Amino acid sequence: QKEVEQDPGPLSVPEGAIVSLNCTYSNSAFQYFMWYRQYSRKGPELLMYTYSSGNKEDGRFTAQVDKSSKYISLFIRDSQPSDSATYLCAMSARGTSGSRLTFGEGTQLTVNP
Amino acid sequence: GAVVSQHPSWVICKSGTSVKIECRSLDFQATTMFWYRQFPKQSLMLMATSNEGSKATYEQGVEKDKFLINHASLTLSTLTVTSAHPEDSSFYICSAEGTGGTYNEQFFGPGTRLTVL
Fold this sequence. Notes:
By secondary structure, chain A is an all-beta fold. Chain A is built from no helices and eleven strands. Chain A has strands at 4-6, 11-14, 19-25, 32-38, 45-51, 54-58, 61-66, 71-76, 85-92, 102-103, 107-112. In chain A, 33% of the residues are buried. In chain B, strands 2, 4, 5, 6, 9, 10 and 11 form a seven-stranded mixed beta sheet that branches. The model of chain B has no long low-confidence stretch (mean pLDDT 91). Chain A binds chain B through residues 6, 8, 32, 36, 41-46, 49, 51, 88, 95-106, 108, and chain B through 4, 6, 31-32, 34, 41-46, 49, 51, 91, 93, 95, 97, 99, 102-111, 113.
């Protein structure tokens, strides 16, 4: 069983739709939860990170963490064609030096104009 | 934000040759850098953790004699794929760890696409 499970999609939505991306995990030691966006043949860029449980909002993006269910989500409101990319969830047990990130498989998102 | 570069961005080599990939943190110093490998439509798999001035820590299943990592300065880490074979063809991505507060963000390079013929 993988430590982090993420539906690879692909997911296709019309412009303006609300997008919901999810990951589940099995390692209860994970404390930091990240969402990265990766465009084709580029390195990932950090969108948001959350420590422990709770919600975090940044513009059109909202990250939710439910540690009791070992389930994290990323919501994208008013999706735009420029949001088309692969979204990767990542987790680590600590945020300090040398923390290993464990990534999900990534969900490929296409937002159609 | 912090910038990490990789060079080259794309390399093609013959089977049996060695290839060196550079990872540089351009505007910050990074004690720790990480090397990942990503196959098409798959996630990033951590290969090794590189600390400046010390030996790299390799993940289980990664051959340390095949993937040589050198982190000689706070802004440069190199990955050398020795005696490359077609199965080593992949997208190699490095990240450099910043420092700040309770969470040390990893800043990723743009990746290097290796094709071994």
